[in-house]
Backbone:
């Protein structure tokens, strides 16, 4: 697929920044490209510690929640936590359950089932809590949009505390003025509240729950070291919910990963062990692409209660069994995903759906929880917005994944009369509609689409056009100061032009690893590795062909020795100047 390479053009005095913070000017440029500006922000970015986290009391309504819950615990009132079925909801539920139990609360958890209950709080869960004799509901990773359900809770004689991180619903009156809609509760804790003074708005639901427990522990005089015990779960959720790794999230993830590598949680330790991850090397990648999907698989194909059970399991065979069950569920999820992805590709080839700027793919037999994953895979293949629709009990449901140039939620708003329900944001959305409306929806969303051919060409933003000869072990070490990498703090992208490939050697049963040397026009040579179609790479770079490469400098450790090795992430034939 054709791809545009563009260079980030953000300006600053990189040499002055480098001198002040004792870093290479290249590192200073990378920091500026991540929109970190000003001495205080740069210092926090490079050297932020737990002491730099904001006081939880700055969260609107949090002090009121602390006073209310302390009294409720003292009075022996029965509390039910209502979480969500994804990683963030499970981790938030666990943090609240363990934290409130430590304070002596009479507390339990219910997590909605994806197919039966849908997202968040519903009337059935409220009525069940009342029937079970619960007096207080605490929501986590949901609740901010549950005004009707929480009103029902109060009608039944219960009270509530909301902890959430999603956008606050608004209404627009006849004069066009917006009004915030807050649910009825003793406290509504959400950094996205317009009246919340908390300076960082990007916390995940588990981090908001952790802030509440932090304040409760402080009020109860529990040592702060016990508060830090929850960091690994807040970090796991921050990564799993794909939050921006900026500001506080950066500190939470960096410090939380340290604790996760030495976790004392038997279930988490088993999940790491059975996935054959070396604890000392555990990083964002392992949480996002190995451990996190195992946790999410239970909520997709069964019940997220299994993931919570794993976290609460004790030492011994129970933890091993539960970890194995989640891994098996995830393997099943991966197999089903591949089958549905292949079915989608066959349908696209057969019907020419790839000619649409917005692809609407109907896979009636696809498990509805997998629609978003399949949509994401198709988007990667075609670099255009994709909706995958599936058959559901009450019509058709679907999930969409978009590209940067297209506002998916706005697109759905333009088709609202065809939909029974929809929601989401710019890059991802969900929808429901009647089966007979699928073709009309496909036509209308494409008719309203303003994407140009240029918008549909993938774009890679290069941080630094840097000769490979500038890369050193020392520079690679300094790049590690920018970790953890992830959404909002992407891995640096470097590029160089007019290089030759020498001594290519193909490895792997699938011939998908190439080790080689990159050679500059003046004869400088450096080791490199490419992951992809090995045969194609070797053929296209044979005979002294000049190529441009996008690369990342890293350290290759072999038999105790460290050496510099570039990872080639993309390449193309050099143009003649």
Residues:
């Amino acid at each position: 697929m054709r791809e545009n390479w563009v260079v980030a053009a953000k300006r600053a005095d990189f040499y002055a920044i480098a001198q002040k913070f004792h870093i290479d000017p290249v590192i200073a440029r990378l920091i500026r490209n991540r929109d970190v500006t000003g001495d205080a922000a740069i210092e926090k970015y490079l050297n932020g510690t737990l002491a730099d986290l904001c006081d939880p009391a700055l969260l609107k309504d949090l002090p009121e929640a602390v006073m209310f819950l302390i009294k409720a615990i003292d009075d022996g009132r029965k509390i039910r936590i209502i979480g969500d079925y994804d990683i963030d909801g499970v981790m938030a539920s666990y943090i609240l359950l363990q934290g409130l139990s430590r304070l002596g609360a009479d507390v339990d958890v219910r997590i909605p089932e994806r197919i039966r209950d849908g997202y968040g709080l519903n009337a059935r869960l409220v009525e069940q809590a009342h029937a079970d004799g619960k007096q207080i509901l605490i929501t986590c990773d949901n609740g901010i949009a549950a005004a009707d359900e929480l009103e029902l809770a109060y009608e039944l004689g219960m009270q509530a505390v909301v902890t959430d991180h999603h956008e606050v619903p608004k209404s627009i009156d006849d004069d066009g003025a917006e009004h915030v809609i807050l649910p009825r509760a003793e406290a509504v804790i959400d950094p996205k509240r317009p009246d919340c003074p908390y300076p960082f708005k990007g916390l995940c639901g588990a981090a908001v729950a952790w802030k509440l427990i932090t304040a409760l522990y402080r009020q109860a005089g529990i040592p702060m070291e016990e508060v830090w015990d929850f960091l690994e779960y807040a970090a796991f959720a921050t990564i799993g919910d794909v939050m921006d790794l900026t500001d506080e999230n950066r500190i939470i993830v960096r410090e939380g990963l340290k604790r996760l590598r030495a976790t004392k949680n038997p279930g988490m330790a088993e999940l790491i062990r059975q996935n054959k991850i070396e604890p000392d090397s555990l990083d964002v990648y392992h949480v996002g692409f190995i451990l996190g999907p195992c946790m999410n698989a239970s909520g997709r194909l069964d019940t997220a209660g299994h993931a919570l059970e794993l976290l609460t399991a004790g030492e011994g065979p129970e933890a091993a069994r539960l970890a194995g069950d989640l891994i098996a569920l995830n393997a099943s999820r991966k197999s089903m995903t591949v089958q549905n992805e292949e079915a989608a590709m066959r349908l696209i080839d057969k019907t020419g759906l790839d000619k649409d700027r917005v692809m609407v793919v109907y896979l009636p037999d696809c498990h509805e929880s997998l629609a978003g994953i399949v949509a994401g895979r198709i988007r990667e293949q075609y670099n255009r917005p994709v909706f995958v629709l599936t058959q559901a009990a009450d019509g058709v449901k679907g999930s969409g994944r978009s590209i940067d140039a297209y506002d998916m939620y706005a697109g759905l708003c333009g088709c609202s009369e065809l939909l029974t329900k929809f929601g989401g944001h710019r890059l991802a959305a969900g929808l429901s509609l009647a089966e007979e409306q699928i073709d009309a929806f496909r036509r209308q969303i494409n008719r309203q689409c303003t994407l140009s051919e240029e918008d549909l060409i993938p774009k890679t933003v290069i941080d630094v056009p840097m000769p490979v000869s500038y890369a050193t072990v020392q520079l690679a070490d300094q790049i590690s100061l920018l970790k953890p990498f992830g959404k909002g703090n992407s891995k640096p992208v470097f590029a160089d032009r007019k290089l030759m490939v020498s001594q290519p050697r193909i490895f792997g049963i699938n011939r998908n690893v190439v080790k080689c040397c990159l050679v500059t026009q003046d004869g400088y040579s450096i080791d490199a590795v490419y992951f992809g179609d090995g045969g194609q790479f070797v053929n296209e770079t044979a005979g002294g062909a000049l190529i441009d490469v996008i690369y990342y400098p890293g350290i290759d450790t072999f038999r105790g020795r460290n050496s510099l090795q570039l990872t080639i992430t993309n390449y193309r034939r050099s143009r003649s100047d």
Observations:
- The domain at 4-45+459-573 is CATH 2.40.50.460 (OB fold (Dihydrolipoamide Acetyltransferase, E2P)).
- The CA atoms of residues 203 and 249 lie 7 Å apart.
- The chain has 21 helices and 20 strands.
- The first helix runs from residue 14 to 21.
